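Researcher: Watch the backbone:
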Amino acid sequence: MNFNLTAFTLFHVAISLTGIASGLVVAYGMLGARRLDGWTVLFLATTVATSVTGFLFPFQKLMPSHVVGAVSLLVLPLALYARYGRDLAGRWRATYVLAALFALYLNVFVLVAQAFQKVPALKALAPTQSEPPFALAQLVVLAGFAALTVAALIRFRPERLSIENLSVQVA
């Protein structure tokens, strides 16, 4: 099999960025108590695909990105079940918010790590990713997601679709 690593990397990056962008839209929807069903499907599908494809790269040893991908693949079924299996009923709403936003956070965490590896200006600031600029960037991301998650837990209370919510106009 002829494996084109460059094309595969571009594909992986594209689905990762799509997952992050659509996840941010979903998070914004949560703050407005909106489900945003289409965006949610896109977010969850691309986030699962990002984690799965991360394991398809050739590697010699277990790396931190593999651990993050494995954690994501453990959390995403909770989000999927809470959203689609339990329709956000009761405590499943909070489970969905926590799992979905944690999966999004993990993708952004990896994005920041990759940025510090690939962007020359950032790599110069933290060549080994153990320097204060890297830690500060990750701390800012963590704090932002913690605040976002608390706000989403408070505000994401979408109405359940029921007969009483439907209005029919007869001409």
Q: What stands out?
A: Residues 65 and 110 are 7 Å apart (CA to CA).
